[in-house]
Specification:
Length: 420
């Protein structure tokens, strides 16, 4: 598509903008008897088969924030509107009734774009904030312009005329300009890996992460993980899988959800935010790497909560990579200058893993076995965090975890002697 000149537009009252764009008309063939460039007489009907195609073009601003720099790139958009000879003749008489179904579908496509609050993406190693405006077509103004264009679309040569398409912009509640005023920037990231996870676990990680993605925690408010995730049921997208319950593995909806809570916890911990509730797993979980920074959830008895003690809102964004099998949770907010240091895990009272547990699985044949969960050693683990606040105060807290020794689990066929 050739580069178009950026049309000028004016901002209307409130958060709506009005934008004039180009409406180009191409592809009309006139009557063979007319000399090149000649126009049909006013009111004359076009010959059968000499319809036109209207190329609608509109340009809209799409602000973005890179660092502290506010940029205003423009999106150039287009859509086409085929017009038959009969519809064109009717339009030259002042009626768009023949085009109404096409216009309605066109408006629906344009207006399917709804406002969305600001989000951050990483581009070239730098975080960029971008929101999305909603689009509403001003039908009266646009159709008046369209009639004017079609009224002159009767030349023997392919006609190319322009007219303004009026589009109103609907700003989101949290726009890029709002983010700039708030001073929002990157705070911290929590990461974890889930390589080797079975399909049910991957499904639950994706569903759980989607529940926290895009959540705003206002200044002074608390993130409540279980409340955000809601009921963990198959009806809400969670798959049945193995969870640690009552000292062994059981099958319930939502196995693997702790991967999400662990990653959310790590992000808040690294951002220096106060953690008001956190529980260690009963056993060390191999997916989470070094021990001491996991967070088990099991509603209603175990939850993860942390508080936003900054002076501005905090945005939570989740990102998963199914190829790399990694989950990341990023926090964005107002950087008040606090500095966070986290110690390496201090491990004591280490104990070797016991013999494995065996569970029946009717899908297995005699002699077969399938490992469900890896063994892990028992230990007590302490991780210390120091947060130096802008006024010079220093806040120290410890995360203590007591893990039982865990022999892992194998599935075996019913009747296997190891089930006794």
């Amino acid at each position: 598509m050739p580069t178009l000149p950026v049309p000028s537009f004016r901002r209307a009252a409130g958060s709506l903008g009005r934008l004039a764009a180009l409406l180009c008309l191409t592809g009309v063939s006139g009557a063979a008897a007319l000399p090149p460039g000649a126009a049909l007489p006013a009111g004359a009907a076009l010959p059968a088969g000499s319809g036109v195609t209207v190329l609608l073009r509109w340009s809209v601003p799409e602000p973005r924030l890179t660092g502290t720099r506010l940029e205003r790139p423009v999106l150039h958009m287009s859509d086409s509107l085929p017009v038959t000879a009969a519809a064109l003749n009717a339009a030259r008489s002042g009626s768009l009734d023949a085009l109404r179904p096409q216009l309605s579908a066109l408006y629906a496509r344009i207006e399917a774009r709804t406002p969305r609050d600001v989000r951050f993406t990483q581009v070239g190693g730098q975080w960029r904030a971008q929101a999305r405006t909603g689009w509403r077509v001003d039908r009266e103004a646009s159709e008046r312009a369209l009639l004017n264009v079609l009224a002159g679309a009767g030349s023997a040569d392919s006609a190319r005329v322009t007219a303004p398409l009026t589009v109103k912009l609907q700003a989101p509640a949290r726009s890029v300009a709002w983010a700039q005023r708030q001073g929002l920037t990157f705070l911290a990231t929590g990461t974890s890996g889930f390589a080797g996870s079975p399909d049910f676990r991957v499904q639950n990680i994706r569903v759980g992460a989607s529940r926290v993605h895009g959540v705003w925690v206002e200044a002074g408010a608390e993130l409540n993980f279980n409340a955000l995730v809601g009921p963990v049921t198959a009806a809400r997208g969670f798959a049945p899988g193995y969870v640690i319950s009552g000292g062994t593995l059981s099958v319930e909806d939502g196995g693997g959800l702790c991967q999400v809570s662990t990653t959310v916890f790590r992000a808040a911990f690294r951002a220096g935010l106060p953690v008001t509730e956190r529980h260690a797993h009963s056993y060390q979980v191999g997916y989470y790497g070094a021990p001491g920074l996991d967070a088990a959830v099991y509603a209603p008895s175990k939850n993860l909560r942390w508080r936003n003690d900054t002076r501005g809102p905090v945005l939570v964004q989740a990102q998963w990579n199914l190829n790399a099998r990694t989950l990341s949770v990023h926090l964005f907010g107002r950087d008040d200058g606090r500095r966070v240091s986290i110690s390496a895990p201090v491990v004591r009272d280490a104990r070797s893993a016991p013999d494995p547990t065996f569970l029946p699985d009717a899908a297995l044949k005699p002699g077969e076995a399938r490992r469900i969960d890896m063994p892990s050693a028992g230990a007590q683990v302490r991780v210390t965090r120091q947060v130096k606040l802008p006024g010079g105060q220093v806040r120290r807290d410890e995360v203590n975890s007591r893990y039982r020794a865990w022999g892992g689990v194998f599935a075996v066929p019913p009747g296997d002697e190891r089930l006794n």
